[in-house]
Amino acid sequence: MAKINMKTPLVEIDGDEMTRVLWEIIKEKLLLPFIDLKVEYYDLGLKNRDDTEDGITVKSAEAIKKYGVGVKCATITANSARVKEYDLKHLLPSPNATIRAILDGTVFRKPISVERVKPSVNTWKKPIVIGRHAYGDVYKAAEMEIDGPGKVELVYTKADGTEKRVKVADFKGSGIVQGMHNIDDSIRSFARACFLYAIEEKLPLWFATKDTISKIYDGRFKTIFNEVYESEFKDKCKAAGIEYFYTLIDDAVARVVKSEGGFLWACKNYDGDVQSDMIASAAGSLAMMTSVLVSPSGVFEYEAAHGTVQQHYYRWQKGEKTSTNPAALIFAWTGALSKRAELDNLSDLADFSRRLEKSVLGTIENGIMTGDLARLSDPPAEKILNSWEFIDAIAERLK
Ligand code: NAP
Ligand code: MG
């Protein structure tokens, strides 16, 4: 059989632990036999990030900027335990944070739905996609312990030296304080990325904040979203037949639980962190959640939402063939390949990506699955396979 050709290289970013093990098998069994795979490879395994003083991470993000599409394996975010475990020279920053900062992106997370795994919320008929703003707020906040009585103020010293101040609190005793920020340009990029995604996927867009309480901070988010909608996307939304809907975050949560699903929920950074795990677990399993970073400049990075599945890796190192679910990793590849196909006008490649996704879904729908899904499957699984057998079963179906 002739292999499918590619035009532009895909930026392939390798990672760590169990996902690195699966990555290799996915390529060997599901991609290389069918595609003349063109990639520019970056090894973001922890050791190599350390050896290159994290230069490799920056290079991989620059490559995504250059070529437009990347696919990334899960990577360890180092902490002191990992420094010891891998005998590292540096405590490296989170590679995802580094890449996101360079690409200025918004992260979209979408569950992979299968009939056999019913969402815990029984009104949900269609997937709910989360669009998470990936800059600022509590993730870039300054915090302080207050030891005893005293006044805390926010002080803004302008470039010309003039000052603006506002009282935060008069402390009568000990306590805590936090200052956080965001940037108009980043909020605008977030809004644009959400509208672009919603239009491309033909999904209504919901956005929610707490602007009744946080009139200036959350109010700015609401205003910018509205400006971006009115000035750039109103007509495009109409043409795509989708609606933009703003409400308060508490109202949104109540509506989400009663909804049928089938919309994009744009969330501020913290809301997105919390709600994407809620959506993932209510929809089924973390192993069935896809993730794509979309930058407003039209650059895409696809990955699985889960981490490196550390505990499975330690069992694999001891010789166990673990039943780790490769679905979200495979969908990271199909997402990236079909985006490459779209940009390069390669219908064979687009077709292949669809078939591979259908093979994964069809295998699961036939009752053949990994252990995490078997725990949720209704009707019960016919066969519970380890990752190697499961990937073989998908390859069989794909052929
Ligand atoms: P994790 O890798 O997401 O795994 C947490 C648990 O979820 C696993 O122990 C497993 O549960 C289940 N799980 C996740 N993915 C699965 C899959 N594909 N198949 C079956 N079960 C799956 O999180 P972690 O173990 O807490 O984190 C490990 C490392 O990943 C950390 O070093 C962290 O920094 C990194 N991380 C990276 C990314 C990224 O690169 N995008 C994201 C998150 C975390 P059971 O043990 O019950 O089977
Ligand atoms: Mg989280």
Fill in the keyword field for this structure.
single chain; 399 residues; alpha/beta; ten-stranded mixed beta sheet; two-stranded antiparallel ribbon; 14 helices; globular; binds NADP nicotinamide-adenine-dinucleotide phosphate; binds magnesium ion
End-to-end separation in angstroms reads: 11 Å
Round the mean pLDDT to the nearest integer and report it.
Answer: 95
* Structural classification: alpha/beta
Shape label:
globular
Cross-sheet strand order for the largest sheet: 2-1-3-14-13-4-5-12-10-11
| Element order: H for helix, E for strand | EHEHHEHHEEEEEEHEHEHEHEEHHHEHEH
Ions, cofactors and other ligands present here are: NADP nicotinamide-adenine-dinucleotide phosphate, magnesium ion
What this model shows, in words?
With 399 residues, the chain is an alpha/beta fold. The protein contains 14 helices and 16 strands. It has helices at 17-31, 46-51, 55-67, 80-85, 95-103, 184-201, 217-240, 249-258, 269-283, 310-317, 327-344, 347-365, 371-374, 387-398, and strands at 10-14, 39-43, 69-72, 106-111, 128-133, 142-146, 150-157, 163-171, 175-179, 205-209, 244-248, 263-267, 289-295, 299-304, 368-369, 383-384. It has a ten-stranded mixed sheet, sandwiched between helices. Strands 6-9 form a two-stranded antiparallel ribbon. Strands 7-8 form a two-stranded antiparallel ribbon. Strand 1 (10-14), helix 1 and strand 2 (39-43) form a beta-alpha-beta unit. It is globular, with a radius of gyration of 23 Å. The N and C termini lie close together (11 Å). The relative contact order is 0.16. Magnesium ion is lined by residues 273, 277.
